[in-house]
Specification:
alpha+beta; ten-stranded antiparallel beta sheet; globular
Length: about 170
């Protein structure tokens, strides 16, 4: 008499559950279309793909906090020696020609910006317009502490300190 291992549907069902629980592969998204989320304050960071060809920045992005609708503008440029991607996040800066003092007064954070790929490798964030795949995580070192010390904190502004890491959540159309 042959050995019987029972019916295979339970095995097929278990396999289907395992496959359904596995993280879905993320569709390719260019860096300039990527949107990232931050868990602690619920902030989002969205890159912009509408850079002017004469603009000196490598990337532009917006950091939005759902609490009281606070929005901050960010940009990435090459700076330092040796040159590396350097980001600035500003809140309520004057439009048009602004002095260095005015820019300093509205700068919430500035520092190196890092991209972390899906394997955990740290590198520069790809420039906008190059058609490179978006990083899995964007790291803005000491961003949370800087927000806490900024004019966007307290009063009618923010009361939840964001983390320094923003994880990929979506791709803009």
């Amino acid at each position: 008499m042959p050995l019987s291992y029972g019916s295979t549907p339970p095995i097929a069902a278990a396999l289907a559950l395992i496959l359904a629980a596995a993280p879905a592969a993320r569709a390719a998204c260019f860096q300039e279309l990527a949107v990232y989320g931050e868990a602690q304050a619920g902030a989002s960071l969205a890159f912009q793909d509408d850079l002017h060809p004469a603009e000196p920045s490598l990337n532009r992005f917006t950091v939005t906090f759902p609490e009281n609708g606070v929005s901050m503008d960010g940009m990435v440029m090459m700076a330092g020696e040796p040159a590396r991607p350097w980001a600035m996040v500003m809140h309520k800066c004057p439009t048009g020609d602004a002095t260095g003092a005015e820019i300093d007064a509205c700068t919430v954070w500035q520092g190196p910006i890092y991209g972390i790929d899906a394997l955990g490798n740290v590198s520069a964030v790809p420039d906008a317009g190059l058609g490179e795949e978006a990083m899995a995580t964007i790291l803005l070192p000491d961003f949370g502490a800087s927000v806490r010390m900024s004019s966007a904190w307290g009063g009618q502004g923010l009361s939840a300190v964001p983390r320094d890491d923003f994880r990929y959540t979506a791709c803009q159309d």
